[in-house]
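A quick aside before the break. I want you to see a complete sequence-to-structure record at least once, exactly as it would be stored in a machine-readable document. Don't worry about memorizing anything.
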Amino acid sequence: MIPNLHIFETPKETAKAVADLILAKAKEKSKLSMPFNLALSGGSTPKLLFSILSSNYSDLIPWHLVRLFWVDERCVPPTHEESNFGMTFENLLTNVPIPDVNIFRMMGENQPQKEAIRYQEIIENQLPLKNGMPQFDLILLGLGDDGHTASIFPDNLSLLDTQHKVAVSKHPQSSQHRITLTGNVINAANEVIFLVTGTSKSEVLKLIINHLPHFERYPASYIHAQSKLPEFYLDKAAAEKL
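That is the input. The structure line, written in tokens, reads:
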């Protein structure tokens, strides 16, 4: 098996493995009395992860040291059913003792370009800088059927290598605006995790992981963590074509 692949039977087992990783990383930072800076993504699999964290890890993780940021956000209010923050709030934040001052949400209700500038200032001020780039301890990513990750889609690959640390993108089908971390910020992270489940992701995973023809079309194929590969946490359905 490729070293950076972690394959589990079910989505629940896959999400639990990522929960265990978050617990371990947070405890490592706790021993150093340092904050654990974590960037979250939305989607159905992270929703399962958040439910597991709130149910089984509420008393285990040193939440007072966890600081939450977002990889991307849809340009909707936090109460909207499509809000990544709203989903996280409902499934995680209401159930764990994380201080409000440790929550740095993207404000999808704001004018998109202004919000991108505001959020860039936040991560520049709140995170340690390495080679001039804000550095997260861990970034949790998903993967779209079209190979997009964060809100970097195949038709805006320029966001993978831009001077902007946070940018505005547009969903290619719905034309919905999104706020997203850009590729250089994601790749500067200490660790990057893809959490992917379901058969609909199996084909694009096969192309990206095996570097098959035209894999360069997919934004997720450009993601790494500093100078190392990302870690893929997959269920059997997502990994079925590997």
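Two observations worth writing down. The two ends are 9 Å apart (CA to CA). The chain has a mean pLDDT of 96. We'll return to this after the break.
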